[in-house]
Design a protein that fits this description.
This protein has 230 residues and is of the alpha/beta class. 33% of the residues lie in helices and 19% in strands. It is built from six helices and eight strands; from the N terminus they run αββββαββββαααα. Strands 1, 2, 3, 4, 5, 6, 7 and 8 form an eight-stranded mixed sheet that branches.
């Protein structure tokens, strides 16, 4: 494994931990919520090591280097800045040049907010979550900050239910029906959907209705002991 590959394994994990889905450019779909595209194509046959999109619109780039390379070196920062100015016209962007520019060698991470006057690169401790970038940009989209849902710990039906529920909300639908078989983990699925809405959107309350008292007590217990497994 090359030094560059070792660094990118760490950076991939940083993105995943922050709620971004890391994909190769041939696997990118505009319907994905928060995505870091590897080797994203730019103008002039340039390639961004990571090209960041939220709800189909570009928000930033990350230039990755091997661990031995200084990620704060002026040459590295200039290269990343060039990439932020090179977004192809085929892509929509929240702002051009792209507002968020990152550099990293897998050990250190730097960020420049292009919107700031006299913007400069500053060291940060972690990749920002999609929700954090949405708040910084002031994006008025209720569901733009939802991180990509991870499959780990979920049954296929649970993953599909929450994914499709959120997709319907993004499409402007006010109602959605999730149908899961008995024993499929419906209450946990409801807990997960509620957690994501309360944590990553402006929503502050979720109404959970049941048609029998014993189901209410059961649901109250599960909500009270809910722990993320993803």
């Amino acid at each position: 494994m090359t030094p560059e590959e070792k660094a990118r394994i760490k950076i991939d994990q940083w993105f995943a931990d922050a709620g971004w889905k890391v994909v190769n450019r041939e696997d990118y779909e505009p319907t994905c919520t928060a995505v870091a595209i590897r080797e994203g194509l730019l103008k002039g046959n340039l390639e961004a090591d990571y090209f960041l999109f939220i709800n189909g619109k570009a928000v930033g780039v990350l230039e990755a280097k091997r661990e031995e390379t200084d990620a704060f070196a002026s040459k590295v920062c200039e290269q990343a800045t060039l990439y932020a100015r090179s977004v192809p016209n085929i892509y929509q962007a929240y702002q051009k040049p792209l507002p968020f520019i990152f550099t990293s060698n897998g050990k250190e991470l730097y960020c420049c907010d292009f919107r700031e006057q006299d913007s400069c690169f500053k060291q940060i401790m972690a990749i920002p979550t999609p929700h954090e970038l949405v708040k910084k940009l002031g994006i008025e989209d209720t569901f733009a900050g939802l991180p990509t849902l991870k499959r780990k710990g979920l049954r296929d039906c649970q993953y599909e239910a929450v994914t499709e529920l959120e997709k319907s909300f993004r499409a402007g639908q006010n109602r959605a029906l999730m149908v899961l078989a008995t024993g499929a983990g419906k209450t946990y699925t409801a807990c997960l959907a509620a957690y994501r809405m309360l944590s990553y959107t402006p929503m502050r309350r979720v109404l959970f209705l049941v048609d029998r008292n014993n189901l209410g007590k059961q649901a109250e217990g599960e909500f009270g002991t809910f722990r993320l497994t993803v």
